[in-house]
Amino acid sequence: MFDTFPASVSVRLARGTLSVDFGRLCPVLSSAPYRGGWVKSRHWVNHHVGADFREADLQGWIAARLASLGFPPEETTGCLTAARLERYGQGSEMRDGFRARAWVTAGLSNLSAPGLSPVFEVPLPHTINACVIVEAELPNAAWVELVQLVAEVKARVLAGRRTPDGYPATGTSTDTVTIAALPGPPARYAGAVTPVGWCVARAFEQAFRSGLR
Known about the structure:
The protein is of the alpha+beta class. The protein has 3 helices and 10 strands, in the order E-E-E-H-E-E-E-E-E-H-E-E-H.
């Protein structure tokens, strides 16, 4: 199903970096540590670091690393992971004119349960990082719904796994999700049973399960 996605979208794994080129600057909503929030980006970058990675100036470090890798820092949303990038998963889905594609890296040694796991001053880099591209015109509330759907699907896939303290795990303490939108049909909502929400949930689940294998 990947051949149905725009040829301008490309994925590359090189120099310890998994990157997705959206083919154009597009709206992005992200929890990534570098250029997260509401931004316009062309690239999503997931860079590998060691399990002992600690950096006081995280923004400056990531910006310098992106530049050295050839990514324009001002057009790139970036995250870090200690997970093995070559095991990344990908998935895609389409329905009623909407199309979604997802990429996920999954490091599970830092599983956590929000509100139950103890607080750590320094976050660990073992993380689940997800990038989802959807072809749709979305109102602001729909973006939030898509982030919510990714979290719900992630929790379902992780059902039965436990944190080091024995709590039911729903992710890691440093997970990130990035949603990017390319031109597509308008969607008023993006809930679990809408065509656009269904596509994003299915694409993400395919990618997450593939990454876990």
